[in-house]
């Protein structure tokens, strides 16, 4: 009797496993590498291959990491393939990279090659961009260069700028408003004494403005407050903390010179692919007004606007489910 019972149990388990495998969505789990101009850049592709859609996550920073944020984006893999790309001198990328390559033009060229590699590996698959913060700058760089936009089906821009001048102007306006509301006279005096104009963009004390924005709760959310995230970051991510916190040293020229030249406002009218603008309404790092201005400039694109009312700079952290649903809606 015991033998018969065991045999029945084994048959039942086998049957359930067979049904589960039959209903399961085809999964992709592959690591690609782009080697270009001294940089070895990994691209982790994970998720539902049946959908024939790839969402390329373009992380922020500069010098951040892609797989760190899979913790918040992983549920999307049930519906699409997610491609997590670590940019040159970022995340788990390696190689001997000349800091002189850390320029918008080079990042745009890298993205072009990443997308070409994805399309070669997964023919007949649509590619969408999901860019955050600094990644939005890279996405605008890519989309406004040559015929690059013909290679993607659409792009989602999350709390990122199109113009250094307009960005810094709005950060200062946001901080000044907060200083007045909070009765912080020290912040108000500093911000009043440091207006941002087209003429002084290169010389104004942007770091002072930026520091006050943070002190006035421009982005009070800390990734490291979530213990599960920290554990995942330490043990479930290919990125290493040692690399993460030394990458920024390579970006001196970017912060001092390159970023201050960024201006794509006049070129946004040339973008014709669908654009999703996703914004944390409380953000002080890239205030929501930058998103509204971007929407106005995209005169020849079908634009989807989504505001996350309870979020700051990273809505995928503070409103994870809502963010995922917004991505799914855009891609579908």
UniProtKB/TrEMBL annotation:
UniProt domain AB hydrolase-1: residue ranges:
54-318
Cite the GO molecular-function annotations of the record.
peptidase activity
- Pfam families found in the cross-reference section: Abhydrolase_1
Q: Which UniProt keywords apply?
A: Hydrolase
Give the InterPro entries listed for this entry.
AB_hydrolase_1 (IPR000073), AB_hydrolase_fold (IPR029058), Peptidase_S33 (IPR002410)
Q: Give GO BP annotations, semicolon-separated.
A: proteolysis
Matching entries from PROSITE patterns are given as:
PROKAR_LIPOPROTEIN (PS51257)
> Keyword 4Fe-4S: yes or no?
no
Its family remark reads: Belongs to the peptidase S33 family.
Q: What is this protein called?
A: Alpha/beta hydrolase fold protein
Species the sequence originates in: Dyadobacter fermentans (strain ATCC 700827 / DSM 18053 / CIP 107007 / KCTC 52180 / NS114)
Question: Species lineage, top-down?
Answer: Bacteria, Pseudomonadati, Bacteroidota, Cytophagia, Cytophagales
């Amino acid at each position: 009797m015991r033998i018969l019972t065991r045999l029945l149990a084994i048959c039942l388990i086998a049957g359930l496993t067979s049904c589960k495998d039959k209903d399961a969505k085809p999964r992709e789990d592959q690591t690609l590498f782009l080697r270009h101009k001294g940089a070895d850049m990994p691209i982790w592709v994970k998720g539902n291959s049946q959908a024939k859609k790839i969402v390329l996550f373009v992380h922020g920073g500069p010098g951040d990491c892609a797989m760190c944020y899979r913790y918040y984006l992983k549920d999307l893999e049930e519906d699409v393939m997610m491609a997590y790309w670590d940019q040159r001198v970022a995340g788990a990328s390696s190689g001997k990279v000349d800091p002189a390559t850390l320029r918008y033009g080079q990042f745009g060229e890298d993205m072009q090659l990443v997308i070409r590699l994805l399309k070669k590996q997964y023919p007949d698959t649509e590619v969408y961009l999901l860019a955050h913060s600094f990644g939005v700058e890279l996405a605008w760089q890519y989309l406004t260069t040559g015929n690059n936009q013909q290679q993607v089906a659409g792009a989602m821009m999350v709390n990122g700028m199109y113009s250094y001048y307009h960005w810094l102007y709005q950060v200062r306006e946001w901080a000044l408003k907060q200083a007045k509301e909070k009765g912080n006279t020290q912040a108000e005096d500093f911000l009043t004494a440091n207006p941002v104009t087209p003429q002084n963009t290169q010389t104004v004390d942007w770091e002072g403005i930026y520091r006050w924005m943070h002190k006035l709760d421009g982005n009070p959310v800390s990734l490291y407050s979530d213990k599960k995230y920290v554990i995942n970051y330490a043990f479930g991510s290919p990125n290493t903390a040692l690399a993460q916190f030394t990458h920024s040293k390579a970006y001196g020229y970017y912060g001092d010179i390159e970023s201050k030249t960024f201006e794509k406002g006049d070129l946004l009218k040339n973008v014709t692919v669908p654009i999703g603008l996703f914004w944390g309404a409380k953000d002080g790092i890239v205030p929501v007004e930058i998103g509204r201005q971007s929407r106005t400039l995209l005169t020849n694109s079908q634009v989807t606007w989504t505001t996350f009312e309870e979020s700051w700079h990273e809505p995928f952290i503070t409103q994870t489910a809502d963010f995922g649903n917004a991505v799914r809606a855009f891609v579908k």
